[in-house]
Amino acid sequence: MEVTNRFITLKHHVDQGRAHESDMELGTTKEKLELKGENDVIVRVLYLSCDPYLRGRIRSTQDSYIPPFTPGKPMGGYGLGKVLQSSDPNFKEGDVVSGVMDWADYSHAFRSTKVDPEAVPLSYYLGALGMTGFTAYVGFFKICEPKKGETIYVSAASGAVGQMVGQFARLFGCHVVGSAGSQQKVDLLTSKFGYHEAFNYKEEPDLDAALKRYCPGGIDMYFENVGGKMLDAVLLNMKDHGRIAVCGMVSQYNKAEQDPIYNLSYVIKRRLKLEGFIQTDHLDLQPEFFKSVIGWFKEGKLNYVEDIADGLEKAPGALIGMLDGKNVGKQSVKVSDV
Amino acid sequence: MEVTNRFITLKHHVDQGRAHESDMELGTTKEKLELKGENDVIVRVLYLSCDPYLRGRIRSTQDSYIPPFTPGKPMGGYGLGKVLQSSDPNFKEGDVVSGVMDWADYSHAFRSTKVDPEAVPLSYYLGALGMTGFTAYVGFFKICEPKKGETIYVSAASGAVGQMVGQFARLFGCHVVGSAGSQQKVDLLTSKFGYHEAFNYKEEPDLDAALKRYCPGGIDMYFENVGGKMLDAVLLNMKDHGRIAVCGMVSQYNKAEQDPIYNLSYVIKRRLKLEGFIQTDHLDLQPEFFKSVIGWFKEGKLNYVEDIADGLEKAPGALIGMLDGKNVGKQSVKVSDV
């Protein structure tokens, strides 16, 4: 089967400062779609996911758990696709799968899982029921070790991960406080995402004072998405035996020199646990995650807000916008109808 | 019973910079030793323990788990004493107990435990079998979650805690690397305390390079005693899923502004766990601690080096010397013979 395949490539690595839409470009090629031996799957790409960790892959330095993109080759990440050809006995033509795939119209798919397009809106499998939702689930239920009645504070709380953490924590019986970077996002936190209290961190000149106002009894759990000055202020407000689940530090990803942290002595003073995690280390929790979260959606107990760009050519702008915090809700790109 | 009681007091709090011997003084008073109701114990003080956490009690600010000393009143801490009077059914005259007591010749004792002066040299109950040894035991066996064959790095490795951590880790089957601040201490690490490798951090202009040289395969566990620049260098050298047991940050205790930490993003990149702890949260482990450690001493498997100042009047100098790293081994003060 020969197709005209469009794809997004990185023109060059960007090690410092912001990456820009113009650092990526759309290419077109004619190619023959051919299975490579056994257990291969070729898909028509339906949706692609824009996630903060992709900033690391635009850097030339290999200092994280994931390698850099190769300039000139298609970028890639989590996506949803419809199976066109399969030599993997687990998948057949017409199945819809989530997996890792190129930022392209057509791609081989890796680490695929079949999804049920009837259970929830399809794009949810990239977010609420995808990597970011599972990240929220692992981070809250496992890394935070929550107890009913405890106070959790979440930064970047309206993001793809944060909006799920807030709702999981509310359902679990915690007091839930979040921050975001615009009034629109703050309104979503309390109206849709289960947060009891929310504030716009950009309007708080003194983060320590803001946290003391919104969490007057202190913080038992901090779900860390941003790093830097926010983390430093949170450390001052943690309660004894508090837990900090370190999911991301998006405020630091563009910085050549990281913001200094001064308050780590609170790790001893308050006997805190800080733990970095990635969801792929906890795949044993996936069955209970799917069961719980699909159940909660069907019972109407969960909301989910997405920001979907339409068309593969919009992917670079969507990615950069997400890194700049311009998206409202989980950022994805729709490439094709089912 | 009326006695002439000598005691050490703090003249005033010292919030910033080094504390000095001259910030403390010896006082003398005549007093009548009288039991205060039930479950009280009065002891002749035998030994007193000089520990890094005492620096925090010399400060006026209450921002830790332990209150400041009151100027003019006797200082206090862990000690050993011989029971003179007791209204506590667990203790009788002549018993030797470890507990919390004044820096004085005579004191009421709190949280006392009877010790066996025949099992090991008596002063060991302030160190190897006391708070610092138990801190090492909790930090290594519980917080570090060790596995045989893993590499552990210990800072302040010849200190009261570090020398026990090294030996516990060696007995357990780990590769053990330590640092200290003089050649004499470094020699002790490899000759007496079970360390496979050791270095003098004061002679290493680039701590990151030193750690790469002494731990070329990376660090699975870091037993943190010093904080600051050492912690920042260690973060760069941790292996995936590494654990950092945060026991103390002695390099930071005198500083008005804490040293900045820049490399916390490695908590995500390497999925690290940092955990602050104090031994009093883990008293359930004390029975196994005493059984194991007394057993290892009797089998000749453990060494212990102490630095004992002779006389209550030497206590201020011993404390300051320990905070400056001048002691070799666990610093205690002998107040009286049994």
UniProtKB/TrEMBL annotation, chains A, B:
Residues 19-333 form the Enoyl reductase (ER) domain. It comes from Riccia sorocarpa. The keyword Oxidoreductase applies. Keywords: Oxidoreductase. This is Enoyl reductase (ER) domain-containing protein. It holds the Pfam family ADH_N_2. The keyword Oxidoreductase applies. GO terms for molecular function: oxidoreductase activity. Gene3D superfamilies: Medium-chain alcohol dehydrogenases, catalytic domain, NAD(P)-binding Rossmann-like Domain.
